[in-house]
Write a structure and sequence with these properties.
681 residues; alpha/beta; eight-stranded parallel barrel; five-stranded antiparallel sheet; 13 helices; 26 strands; 19% helix
Length: 681
């Protein structure tokens, strides 16, 4: 027996007294609910849904006696005029879980599911870390623990990542940014391994199938409701450890591709509402995936907002990084909008209030909105200008000193009138070379991706330190290790929010592959043996993170200026060269030196002063360091060219500098901190 609802209902499947109510929004004139057996997907019955009058194409039906976790379901819709026969069984865009996915690598037969969503959050509280204190650690849930060296009981899963929380705390990061965890089809890749002929996976997961459903193959427990519970347990445990959780969300395209791709849901439900179409009806492919979501259409806008609200409330995540966010700024004709309604609604949404919003302010069609993304005072940005400037400085490229100076103080040219924390700074991320490869390769090695080595970015401003690829030359290997330390020291002393990908602190390599989206293999996994091989680098990064926490001057929300405030002994930032007050801003300069000072970082707190110098040239430089504030003396925190064990010191235990004169080795960086004179006794 069925009873149709006659009033508007929230889309999806929802438990109501005595049963489950289903609601589907579609432009089709008729729709049917399809109930299926969960173990094999066999159809049990089909029930015609009632169209709710005046509800914008909403079809509803309530089925008494259904219990969450005991059935799968889908929908059929009638064809549009000119079509023949009803559609195949479609997924519910609002499905809270997708069944039929199987273990990782098995070709899925997806079906919508309604899990028992009960979960005891206990005393869970968001960490609420101030933006200026945030350190983002980007990771792939599967790749983080899939390698045999991870030592976890359930590798490649949410549970496996949970086992590594002590490592995250010990390292000193306080925020993880997870590559896509919404359900995706890892078997959806047309390329094959050129060495074996086997199909390659879509390992990263930037091809969303279920926008509200957790990736089931990332769960050790794949029973009904298991993936959701396991992900919630991970979020809860991370929060208890003081670590925030950001999700990398893919809202600009779907796994349906173009009309040659799989028919999953959106294309049959309301193609013109969900996808950008050209005048000829063809798909606009602004994402290089075959389709582009019509993000600012009212129907799609409501759906995308509901997706974000779901993850924020059901999984209590702390924020989102928006993949190819410029797609969300495009209108129904594909053109960039000055005031995109979706972004305004996300920024103002009360459910999302307090969640972090971070935009990748580009797309595959050439939009580049870094510094100009419609932020509404809420969106931060992945600062690609920081990435490029840091890489060019490390490689000693012309003009890089002056460019990086602006990035060091939070990119005020891009984010004027906004906090420095609008800039998420990074040197590397999942997309491109690892930090170790940035110092090892100048030519991408992507042949294993099956695309003839032509995929990925051709020029990443990398420098191989004089030899392409691995080498036994100790001088080159030491230089590469020093360059990695230089990168971390610059990143963690810059204004803004630092971010780095998992494994860079362990010397992780992809052997020159700078587009490892299809590498579910040791190439794409984190080899934990790197902790032993690169112990010095790990210790250096850990101490840099502790130093950043200890020095408020490195975590300012405002952009420092070089004018002297009343009552301050030093300006918030001053620039220097081999001699104090004599910076070299010429095109060929290879020396950048800055003195950062904050007189009153907190009420009643002591001043915080740091001096930073980097030499990107091939020869040593002799420096005379400017005087520290009165009553203090300089102490050495880091010298990236020092012998192992002395490259960085524990915060608060830095040795005093005997002289204002320092020799800065080629391709090295130096950081000093001012301590009260009594601390030298």
């Amino acid at each position: 027996m069925t009873a149709a609802t006659t009033t508007a209902a929230p889309p999806g499947a929802h438990v109501v007294p005595g049963g489950v109510r289903f609601a589907l929004r579609t432009a089709a004139p008729d729709a049917w609910l399809v109930l299926m057996r969960p173990d094999d997907g066999a159809v049990l019955r089909e029930i015609r849904m009632d169209r709710a009058p005046g509800a914008g194409g909403l079809h509803t039906v309530t089925v008494p006696g259904l219990v969450p976790g005991t059935f799968h379901y889908g929908f059929r819709v009638a064809p549009r005029p000119g079509g023949t026969g009803p559609s195949p069984v479609l997924l519910d865009p609002y499905a809270a879980e997708l069944g039929g996915g199987g273990a990782w690598g098995e070709r899925p037969a997806y079906r919508s599911a309604l899990p028992d969503g009960s979960f005891d959050w206990g005393d869970d509280r968001p960490p609420g870390i101030p933006a200026a204190d945030l350190v983002v650690y980007e990771l792939h849930v599967r790749g983080f623990t899939r390698h045999g060296s991870s030592g976890v009981a359930r590798p490649g899963t949410y549970a496996g990542l949970r086992e590594k929380i002590p490592y995250l705390r010990q390292l000193g990061v306080n925020c993880v940014e997870l590559l896509p965890v919404a359900e995706f089809d890892e078997t959806d890749n047309t390329y094959t391994d050129p060495a074996t002929g086997r199909p390659l996976p879509n390992y990263w997961g930037y091809n969303t199938v279920g926008f509200l459903a957790p990736k089931a193959a990332y769960a050790a427990d794949r029973r009904p409701g298991g993936p959701g519970r396991e992900l919630k347990e991970l979020v809860k445990a991370l929060h208890a450890a003081g670590i925030e959780v950001l999700l990398d969300v893919v809202l600009g395209h779907t796994a349906e591709g173009d009309r040659r791709g799989p028919l999953l849901s959106f294309r049959a439900l309301d193609e013109p509402a969900y996808y950008l179409l050209g005048p000829d009806g063809a798909y606009r492919n602004l994402t290089a995936t075959g389709n582009t979501v019509n993000a600012n259409h009212p129907v799609t806008r409501a759906f995308l907002l509901d997706c974000l609200r779901h993850w924020a409330t059901e999984y209590r995540v702390d924020g989102f990084r928006f993949d190819m966010a410029s797609i969300l700024a495009r209108g129904t004709d594909g053109a960039l909008l000055e005031e995109p309604p979706l972004l305004a609604e996300i920024a103002a949404d009360p459910v999302l209030a307090g969640r972090r919003l971070i935009a990748e302010a580009t797309d595959a069609a050439g939009a580049y909105q870094v510094g100009s993304f419609p932020h509404h005072g809420r969106f931060a940005e992945w600062n690609m200008r920081y990435r490029d400037a840091a890489r060019r400085l490390l490689a000693g490229r012309p003009g890089s000193v002056a460019e990086f100076a602006t990035r060091l103080v939070g990119s005020p040219d891009l984010y004027a009138g906004r906090p420095a924390t609008a800039s998420v700074n990074y040197v590397t991320c999942h997309d491109g070379y690892t930090l170790a490869d940035l110092t090892t390769y100048e030519r991408r090695r992507n042949e294993a991706n099956g695309e003839g080595g032509r995929d990925g970015v051709a020029d990443e401003d990398s420098w191989n330190c004089g030899h392409e690829g691995p080498t036994r030359n100790l001088d080159i290997r030491r230089l590469r290790e020093r360059q990695a330390r230089n990168a971390f020291l610059l990143l963690l002393t810059s204004q803004g929010v630092p971010m780095f990908p998992a494994g860079d602190e362990l010397g992780r390599t992809q052997r020159g592959n700078n587009n490892a989206y299809s590498q579910d293999s040791p190439t794409g996994w984190l080899d934990w043996a790197g902790l032993a091989r690169h112990r010095d680098l790990y210790t250096f990064v850990r101490r840099c993170l502790a130093f950043r926490r200890a020095e408020p001057v490195l975590r300012r929300e405002h952009h420092p200026v070089d004018t002297l405030p009343d009552g301050w002994p030093l300006p918030p930032v001053s620039w220097h060269g081999e001699e104090p007050g004599q910076p070299d801003w010429s095109e060929g300069s290879t020396l950048l030196a800055a003195l950062l000072h904050e007189e009153r970082p907190s009420p009643g707190g002591p001043p915080s002063t740091v001096y930073l110098a980097v030499n990107s040239g091939h020869g040593p430089r002799a420096l005379r360091v400017p005087d520290p504030p009165p009553g203090t003396r300089w102490h050495l925190f880091a010298d990236t060219a020092a012998p192992p064990g002395r490259q960085a010191h524990r915060a608060g235990a830095e040795p005093p500098c005997p002289s204002p004169h320092h020799s800065l080795a080629a391709h090295s960086a130096l950081a000093l901190v001012a301590r009260p004179l009594k601390s030298a006794l």
